[in-house]
From TrEMBL:
<dbReference type="InterPro" id="IPR053144">
    <property type="entry name" value="Acetyltransferase_Butenolide"/>
</dbReference>
<feature type="domain" description="N-acetyltransferase">
    <location>
        <begin position="1"/>
        <end position="132"/>
    </location>
</feature>
<dbReference type="Pfam" id="PF13673">
    <property type="entry name" value="Acetyltransf_10"/>
</dbReference>
<protein>
    <submittedName>
        <fullName>GNAT family N-acetyltransferase</fullName>
    </submittedName>
</protein>
<dbReference type="GO" id="GO:0016747">
    <property type="term" value="F:acyltransferase activity, transferring groups other than amino-acyl groups"/>
</dbReference>
<dbReference type="InterPro" id="IPR016181">
    <property type="entry name" value="Acyl_CoA_acyltransferase"/>
</dbReference>
<dbReference type="InterPro" id="IPR000182">
    <property type="entry name" value="GNAT_dom"/>
</dbReference>
Length: 132
């Protein structure tokens, strides 16, 4: 495990392996460079999982790109990534901050283990997003 940014090439390949499609390399590099926190998991030098936190570093933090190579899923790698993200957030996100994420369909229970709530519920409305 490393608390470092993956290379652009590794990031793009891992996205493709999980079916997230291709993105412009310049946009991806800008995104990686702008992250607040990174964690990567390597086995024998190969990137097999990663996660990062983006946001303003004050009121809003957003968990992004928690992803594990399909060949290495169900081995605790996702939990290792999230545990490191949660440790970072415990120090960085002060009382009053909001931590958000978008879960892949069917993965909600994974994030619920860390205290994340599904929306909508009795208190919160539906989350929304827009893709350009």
């Amino acid at each position: 495990m490393e608390l470092s940014c993956p290379s652009l090439e590794e990031f793009l390949l891992l996205r493709e392996k999980v079916g997230w499609g291709k993105v412009d390399a310049d946009l991806a590099q800008t995104s990686l460079n702008s992250s607040l926190f990174h964690v990567v998991i390597r086995l024998e030098g190969l990137l097999v999982g990663m996660g990062r936190v983006i946001g303003d570093g004050g009121l809003f933090f957003y968990i992004q790109d928690v992803v594990v190579d399909p060949e290495f899923q169900r081995q605790g790698i996702g939990a290792l990534i999230m545990n490191n993200i949660e440790m970072y957030l415990a120090g960085a996100a002060k009382k009053g901050a909001t931590i958000g994420l978008l879960s892949a369909k069917g993965k909600e229970s994974f994030y619920a283990r860390y205290g994340y709530l599904s929306r909508p519920d009795k208190m919160l409305g539906c989350g929304m997003c827009k893709f350009n």
